[in-house]
Amino acid sequence: MSVRAAQSPLAAIANAPYLLLSFTALLWAINMVIGRYMVGAVPPITTACVRWLLATLILLPFAWRQIVRDAPLLRRHFWRLVLLSSTGIASYNAMSYYGLQYTQALNGLLLQSISPLLVAVWSLLLFRDGLSLGQTVGVFISLAGVLIIISGGSIDTLLHLTLNAGDIWIMVALAIYAFYTAILRVRPPLGPLSFLAAIMAIGGVLLLPVMAWELTHGAELHFNRFTLGVFAYVSTAPSLLAYLAFNRGVQLVGANRAAPFFHLMPVFGTALAILFLGETFAWFHAAGYALVLTGILTATRAKGAKPA
């Protein structure tokens, strides 16, 4: 077998944007559930800070050669990296974990459904990129599927959903992350590993003073098997693997085509509840999954809109 043939499966995955974006949604759905489950055991800002510092340390040996090669670009584009890190790494994750202290994981997963619309708004405002009719239809079909899953097919449930402080924090975090998604197109021309290492390291450093404030104002961190397990997961799967996959997926298909895959997060979240928490599969799950997949296919296969 030739070297080229041996490398082809990995190359195929790296060039399969919809597989990468689906994988990202799965890892982030698990992260959302864990973020709610750890309430009271691990302080939210501390979780975000340790997550990115640990992820940086894990990635550093693999990214070092790219970092050395890209050192001039890292210095030249430092403030652009700070902008990308403060929005896509520091602010979004810290605010999401903080919001989950006051709301349910179900609410957090539901709120993810507004992400494609937020990405479309930022893309239009910043780059004058509009959604085509097909992309718009796809987004709303997927949104309808998500609402069916979360509500259990009951309009009454949707009408009585209420927002609390945690929901508002998560909504602001999503608006910030949508901004990050939209501006990924102007990321510096760095290697994927050096880029990710840079924004993770900057994000961790930006969160250090906030973590210090949190720990000196009553928050407690207890090191045990649970907290160590939380740190092990959040610093690897939803950080290293998911961000590499997400950044690559957006690079290949653009922000507006990638955004509908956020709708897979509540789909995966309910599927995990069925598999591991013993919840029953019902008609509204099947209907919601069908609509989400139909919407994603519609949005990804539609032609992009011309610049406004």
TrEMBL record:
The keyword Metal-binding does not apply. GO terms for cellular component: plasma membrane. The chain crosses the membrane at residues 12-31, 37-60, 81-100, 106-127, 139-162, 168-186, 193-213, 225-246, 258-277, 283-302. It comes from Azorhizobium caulinodans (strain ATCC 43989 / DSM 5975 / JCM 20966 / LMG 6465 / NBRC 14845 / NCIMB 13405 / ORS 571). Signal peptide: none annotated. It is a multi-pass membrane protein. Keywords: Cell membrane, Membrane, Transmembrane, Transmembrane helix. SUPFAM superfamilies: Multidrug resistance efflux transporter EmrE. This is Drug/metabolite transporter (DMT) permease superfamily protein. Its main location: membrane. The keyword Transmembrane helix applies. PANTHER family: INNER MEMBRANE PROTEIN YTFF, OS03G0707200 PROTEIN-RELATED. Residues 18-150, 165-298 form the EamA domain. It comes from the Bacteria.
